[in-house]
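Example record

The entry below shows one chain as it appears in the dataset: sequence first, then structure tokens.
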Amino acid sequence: MKRILKSKKSLKDKADWVRRETIRIHGIAPQTRVASSLSCVEILTALYYGKVLSFDKRGKKSAKRDRLVLSKGHGAVSIYPILADLGFFNPRELRRVCQAGSFLGSIPDTLIPGIETTNGSLGHGLGVSCGISIALRLAKDRHKVFALIGDGELYEGSVWEAVMFAGHHKLSNIIAIVDNNGISMLDYCRRIIDLRPYEQKFRAFGWKAETVDGHDVLALRQCLARLKSDKTRYPKVVIAKTVKGKGVPSLESDALCHIKSLSNNEVSDLLKGADEE
């Protein structure tokens, strides 16, 4: 597959490009959750460009693929430029996000080539991943299921039901990634319900857990690749420490950034500054 990157610089450059394109999309569609999307840029970059996720631009038409479940669907529009860049659909569609006639909405939908599930309601993605995991096991298919979930999403009881289920049934082909950006919808997670340390909680239910800098794209790639090749009979989870609104100072420092939109002037200034670097 083209555009597979391995060096730290090339992966970082690609992540910077994805971040710019995410901001550009937000300028076209202000209803997109830009802060939540910016925190997972390096995670998606490592998966797609770091030779971690096995994929085919034919999407669900191909059995030879890992599955990526975007459980934090409200904050995953950063995947749009990646899928367009990798040939899943025409890049011209990026100019029509959330417009009439476009299949690109504020939440990724299964109408989009390369999108496995629709997860607008939080707390469902990990349970869906368990179902996919069992189906792959029964089919003797060795592909993996990656599930991207938010730390605020961990407040949902259905997530912990799925955690217990996966641990009990030793669903070793699941790799969950927690986008640990520290901010939920209306405040810092530590001031709502502080669930830390996450690693200990997952381990208590039979998971293998690791923590990584969620903006160090090479470290992410290495961690995810290592867990993908791990042969132990445990589901795996990566706690990716990130910053909500990464790359936009006004969002990074705002506890309400989840529900904030950038003005046209802010978007223009950010893109101008990034293009000049």
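Notes for this example: The chain is about 40% helix and 10% strand. The chain has one domain: 8-276.
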